[in-house]
Design a protein that fits this description.
Radius of gyration: 29 Å
CATH architecture of the largest domain: 3-Layer(aba) Sandwich
CATH class of the largest domain: Alpha Beta
Distance between the termini: 85 Å
Number of helices: 22
Number of domains: 2
Largest sheet: 9 strands, mixed
Helix content: 40-55%
CATH superfamily of the largest domain: Alkaline Phosphatase, subunit A
């Protein structure tokens, strides 16, 4: 050896065992990324179907092969570990999103990222300890790195992978992913599509469908689409017979209108007592004196509360892909406020939060409100994280409406309440009812305290309206924006046992109240027709003496006082293709045949789906036309 030149000795030395046994970082990352995707599948689908992992593996191998191919050897760790951290964060956020909304998030959820700061308390309540498993390997890696720093030793460098083999893996991964995407494209059910395609491939499918929908919408003509909508709706038997004059037409013509959109308000507390005490005595009285619709269901999309505002004013379906305030706040939306402004109404909306929350500063001009009154208009009594209480909301609102009335104009006013917002924390000194010990300290108990306070505050609103001389000339419309009790934290059987009611995790959860109280002491009526939030605007328009066909006005809902049969679609919190009709809630599987139907009356599963196929096909077409219609509307 001594005769061998120094510069050649290294070539003759045996390869160290540590180097030959080293596993390339690429393989470690492939295993870690796939394990995390398996964890995501567990959170999404409550099981791991091994045959579905090929879709995830294909997308991940394509991604990691590309990173391995373009990253220099010395930069492998610098590239992989930040990518792993970002990947873990995305899966963590996707899990929280799914647990809150029961919908698979897509890249469009990023548009709502700036809203998270406003609902921090709700987000924190959603987090489960098991969600942090996505970061377990990162924590271990940091600990190992710190140990090596203390020992003044170095982590072994990554070993390279054959580039030709990587290129083959990359191409194969892309080809397989394309096949999975192609197979998943026809599936309307977002959850079923994501399960079949894998989370990453599903993002591409969503982007392709969105681009296609946008292309169709921007080239469409609103008038032509409206004609197509009219033809479709005429084919559905909403009414058994046509009346010359619709029932209740103009019953509240020229009256003031106040809309109360109640935060997280489900229907089950109406007429419910706990230990002999009514939870909602004010609403119970209003329901008994007015029109009460006990079978109305939420239909909101990504925008949640703001989507409820959008629907109740426009009778247009949310797209389910983006909050309507964000995606369509630049349009001139046909709406009830616009129709009423033509009839000399002053239109205004009230909310204790900042108007930029959910881009309401765009939504309100799009809908056609004259004025909005947001956070700076109220004294912050620090009721919850949103700020002022419902009592303060109504105090300011009634003062403004009294001034409008003095100017001799009728008003249309919308109030968006926030005191019953998740996580339903009502200050001790604002609790107006005592609950049994078994409910105290539970989320159900907190929710009932919030519901009861909301009801109490409505009583203060009515008192103020009477003091100002407005009550006897005002129509009061009250409805819930969406469900309150998260299913993963509230077992239906526990609710049934504690409250002595029928409670279903879907039917009861999505069932919201609709109450319309008119001046003049009209006899109360319970309307059993099934409806949704798209039906609220046509129903109120009829009471105000506005004929939507004569306008003409394109509405995707119907007047609940003048139909015998109804069907309303839902595609957020439930998959696309879900609908409520007079008989059932239907939820599709990969299609109609493997779907499920639940009886609205008995809350039992319905075995024979055959009678509901026509409604399924109809509602898919109607929501498609709604998307095309709103996308074709002119920008302001």
């Amino acid at each position: 050896m001594n005769d061998v030149p120094l510069n050649q000795r290294k070539l003759l030395q045996p390869v160290r065992k540590a180097e030959t046994g080293r596993v390339p970082l690429f393989y470690w990352m492939a295993i870690l990324f796939l394990l995390k995707m398996m964890l995501l599948r567990h959170f999404f689908h409550q099981e791991i179907v091994w045959t579905r992992l090929a879709a995830d593996a294909a997308a991940l191998l394509a991604l990691l092969s590309l990173v391995e191919l373009v990253t220099p050897m010395r930069r492998k760790a610098i590239a992989y570990w930040p990518l792993n951290a970002a990947y873990s964060l995305v899966l963590f956020a996707a899990t929280l999103y799914f647990e809150h909304f029961n919908s698979i998030p897509t890249y469009t959820a990023l548009y709502a990222l700036h809203q998270v700061g406003q609902i921090t308390s709700s987000v924190i309540e959603t987090i489960q300890p098991s969600n942090f498993l996505f970061f377990a390997d990162l924590i271990i890696a940091v600990l190992v790195w710190m140990f090596c720093k203390v020992r003044h030793s170095r982590l072994p460098a990554s070993k390279s992978v054959n580039k030709i083999g990587l290129l083959i893996v990359f191409i194969a991964g892309l080809a397989l992913s394309a096949r999975f995407i192609q197979a998943g494209m026809p599936i309307q059910n977002e959850l079923a599509a994501a399960e079949k395609e894998g989370f990453l491939n599903y993002q591409i499918t969503s982007a392709i469908k969105s681009a296609k929908d946008h292309s169709i919408a921007v080239t469409g003509n609103p008038d032509e689409i409206a004609e197509e909508i009219n033809r479709l709706q005429s084919s559905y038997p909403y009414t058994a017979k046509k009346r010359e004059t619709p029932a209740y037409f103009g019953a509240a013509k020229g009256k003031n209108v106040i809309i109360l959109q109640l935060e997280s308000f489900q229907n089950f507390p109406i007429n419910l007592s706990v230990e002999g005490k009514e939870l909602t005595p004010v609403l119970n009285k209003l329901a008994a004196e007015g029109l009460y619709f006990p079978h109305v269901f939420q239909q909101i999309g990504n925008g949640n509360t703001s989507d409820a505002e959008f629907m109740s004013n426009t009778s247009i379906y949310p797209t389910g892909k983006i909050a309507m305030s964000t995606g369509y706040g630049d349009r001139k939306l046909p709406s009830l406020p616009r129709l009423l402004r033509e009839r000399n109404y002053a239109t205004s909306t009230f909310h204790v939060n900042d108007v930029t929350f959910w881009d309401r500063d765009k939504l309100y001009p799009a809908i056609g409100f004259d004025h909005y009154y947001d956070k700076p208009f109220y004294n912050d009594d620090k009721f919850n994280n949103f700020g002022a209480s419902d009592e303060e909301l109504y105090r300011v609102g009634v003062d403004q409406l009294a001034e409008t009335s003095r100017q001799g104009k009728p008003f249309y006013a919308q109030f968006i309440t926030a005191s019953s917002h998740h996580p339903f924390l009502v200050p001790e000194d604002r609790r107006k009812i005592a609950l049994p010990d078994a409910m105290n300290g539970t989320q159900l108990g907190d929710y009932l305290y919030a519901v009861h306070y909301t009801d109490y505050a409505i009583g203060t609103l009515i008192d103020r309206l009477k003091e100002k001389g407005l009550w006897d000339d005002t129509v009061l419309v009250i409805y819930g924006d969406h469900y309150g009790l998260p299913p993963e934290q509230n077992d239906p059987q526990t609710i049934r046992d504690l409250l002595g009611i029928h409670y279903d995790s879907q039917l009861s959860r999505f069932n919201i109240p609709l109450i319309i109280h008119m001046p003049g002491g009209a006899e109360g009526k319970t309307v059993e027709t099934v409806g949704g939030q798209v039906d609220m605007m046509p129903t109120l328009a009829n009471l105000l003496g506005i004929s939507l066909p004569d306008e003409p006005f394109t509405a995707f809902g119907h007047d609940l006082l003048n139909i015998d049969k109804n069907v309303v679609g839902m595609r957020y919190y439930l998959p696309t293709g879900s609908f409520f009709n007079n008989d059932v809630l239907f939820v599709p599987g990969t299609g109609f045949e493997d779907g499920e139907a639940i009886s609205i009356k008995t809350q039992e599963r319905v075995a024979d789906l055959t009678p509901y196929r026509a409604d399924y096909e109809y509602i898919l077409k109607l929501m498609e036309l709604s998307d095309r219609y709103v996308g074709s509307l002119p920008k302001r």
